[in-house]
Design a protein that fits this description.
Keywords: Coiled coil. By secondary structure, the protein is mainly alpha-helical. The chain has a domain of about 35 residues. It has three helices and three strands, in the order H-H-E-E-E-H. The protein has a three-stranded antiparallel sheet, with no helix packed on it. Strand 2 and strand 3 form a beta hairpin. The longest helix is centred in the first third of the chain and has 73 residues. The model has no long low-confidence stretch (mean pLDDT about 75).
Length: about 150
């Protein structure tokens, strides 16, 4: 009788082991599918976080650009006329200023560049660049040659 009991218990234990192995396989499949779903959802969350971070960076960059533009508007920058004016009161780039009669408006005396350059490089008729015998120094009657 003892042998028959042990044989029946061994048979029932084999059935239990088979059932447990089947359950273990089903559990492994369920864990694998849950793991795959978890990774899929984690990648979706990472993409959403990256998009939110990019949006926050754009907002921060836009704020910094607006702040820089606001500071530039508040900052005093001289105009080209003020820069060329030289900063001295009463003097400009082209010489002394004179006051116009009537309105008290200050106007620059301006001479165009071309006549200034023309005066530097032009020669008068009859004059030469080097003093010669016919220059005014040697043509006077007061020079005595010995």
């Amino acid at each position: 009788m003892c042998c028959e009991e042990t044989r029946s218990q061994a048979g029932s234990n084999k059935d239990r082991v088979k059932l447990l192995k089947e359950r273990e396989e089903d559990t492994e499949v369920a864990v694998a599918s849950l793991n795959a779903e978890l990774h899929k959802n984690m990648s979706k969350i990472a993409k959403a976080e990256a998009a939110a971070a990019a949006k926050a960076a754009v907002v921060a960059r836009t704020k910094s650009i607006r702040e820089r533009e606001r500071r530039m508007e508040e900052e005093y920058l001289p105009t080209l006329a003020q820069i060329l004016g030289g900063g001295e009161k009463g003097k400009g780039l082209f010489g002394e200023r004179k006051k116009e009669r009537g309105w008290g408006k200050v106007v620059n005396k301006k001479q165009p560049i071309v006549p200034l350059v023309w005066k530097m490089f032009s020669r008068r008729k009859g004059s030469s660049t080097t003093p010669g015998l016919d220059s005014s120094l040697f043509s006077s009657a007061h020079v005595f040659l010995n």
